[in-house]
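User: I'll paste a sequence; please echo it back and then give the predicted structure.

Assistant: Echoing your sequence first, then the prediction.
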Amino acid sequence: MTAIINISLKTGVLDSQGKAVHHALDSLNFKGVDDVRVGKQIVMKLSSEDAAEARAEVAEMCEALLANTVIENYEIELIK
């Protein structure tokens, strides 16, 4: 089973990397971009075949290490 974890800053948290990317796109004359938010994606191969067990384990990983839950949200997608 594969777990895909998307981590993004919570609404209201300043995204300085996103602002830098937005500014760079604007300076390259890409004018249709209103806002940019930068996040991260983690893809991991799991040995578990039980979706509920895998989701719980990945959520525990996110809470303990992968995401800073004070300022970040995470979403877990499981693919068999």
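The radius of gyration is 16 Å. The chain has one domain: 2-79.
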